[in-house]
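Q: Can I see a sequence and its folded structure?
A: Here is a first one.
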Amino acid sequence: MIFDYLFNEYIEMFDDIHSKSEIINKKNRYKNHIKDYIGHLHLEEIKFKHCQEIVNNIIKVKELSPKTAKNVNAIVQTIFNYAIKNDYTEKNPAQYTIIPKFDNKYNISLKQNQIKSLIDEILNFDNSIYKLIFIFALHGRRKSEILKMQWYQIDFALKVYSIPAQKNKARKHDVHEMTPLLYHNLKSHYDNEIKSRDKVLEKDYIFINENTNTYFKDLRRPFNKLKKLACIEKMRFHDFRHLLGTECIKKGIPVEHISQALGHSNIDVTQRYITKDSNISNKVVSNFLSSYSS
């Protein structure tokens, strides 16, 4: 039995038992991180090295967190445990995978002059598409939320954008008011798209890779260029979110507001009693950016 068939059997078996969000998460992680490595292999062909390569690729190549690697490896372990219970195999190679220790209380260590340089370089980036992508990142959006964003999520009249539940890690519909910086750059990009393509459909991706005619899947080259220009050696794309959160905490912005700006599912029980307004994201990000304006 090949692993891909086994995974689909597991999903079908537990589709009505696990929550819908859990099934979706497993499918997405399998598609994005596991399938290309071991999906085509027979169970007895999969060794420890294959499972370790999945983890290494997540951390070193995709520059995602060890926590993400741990969650993905947990899926591989779960599928193998299911196989063992059904006498499909006798071993679980994923149980030996080595994952670096991580701390959820992660703080990015950038000095104030580095943060200012980072923002300045983004605002002066020579490619308008990547510039807009980085501006979205400054607003706390996840990379996948940015790259897979479509025009139906944008409302220029109300100056808001939405992250629907199916594109949101927290699996909830979020609406954020645009800052003037984001609005002007996004509107300019939209006008350019209209001129170059004559017609822009709501289903179209906002950021289209001309080489593949679909959304961008790799930002390593422009992101590495940005880091070099800003004289920053160590930074992941996801660190934009940590940067926004950490700096806003320092400025005394209520943690509930920061949580909403970042699109977190919750912070604690008291979050249930917070009234959420779409313009909070605007206030949080504007407050952050104003500290580093030239």
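Q: Show me another, different protein.
A: A second, unrelated one:
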Amino acid sequence: MSPRLPGRDRGAPVVRTQRPAALRPGARPGGGVRHTKPVRRRSAGLTPTRAGSLLALLVAVAGLYGAVSSDAFSARHVEVTGTTWTSEEAVLAALAVPPGQNLFSLRTDVLEDRLAVIPAVGGADVSVALPDTIRVDVRERVALLAWRAAGHTFLVDETGLLFSKLVDAAPGVAEPLTVVVDRRNESLALGVGATLDAVTLDAALRIGSLTPADLGSSSSRLDIRLDDTNGFTIRGQPLGWTAVFGFYTPTLRTTDLIPGQVRLFRSLILGQEDTVLRVILADDRSATMIPRPTPRPSPTPKP
């Protein structure tokens, strides 16, 4: 039970005292709430600093407009580097830069895309050298084989793309490349931009990488040929023997046979290479060797 306060009757209503208006927040002695007026700041106006910045901006804009419209920055020279298989004329024709092109408005990315249409070009970097030069650094495809077909010799890259004719290259540059002579009927349709199928390319690269020493031969040169009758063949020069490696497919007769065929050929010609005319390598375990015909002895003259 709570104690009762002295002087207060039980059950009498509680009277709450009201705080004086002067003690209320924001009140003033006369009553009511005081309203404050907003303070207006004076504008700084066009100060010398702002005027100088604006003038510099206008001068920059005027200078840029003058540079874009001036003949002093027109393209007059094109420097081309990095080409071996591609002629400079072909690069300039693909760029197609109009006469008097202003370098400030030149889109170098567009020029790089134009060069990509040349089959021999794998990529390019185009830049500008003021006041009047365009620099083109070409990255060409890497030739792994020389493919002779339809009366022409084409360069082949790692994807099997025939990307250039050998006649367009500098003399002597392609001499280290292995040449494959393609006599198949379908080779008549080959040209720049065509692509060899993956199996043919793989077989050509494997066989094309062989040396006379790999075959156990004393030949000085190996000629590689592909036709519709025997598939891939190798002819040793100047001895004249022929090794028939045959056709290859993705599943039934794969190019994985080639290392075993090489070992088999070595074992067959060991010590008798000069007597071998032809070796037909059915697979990596069986082969047929055809010897050279033995010259018939001349008849003994009668006494």
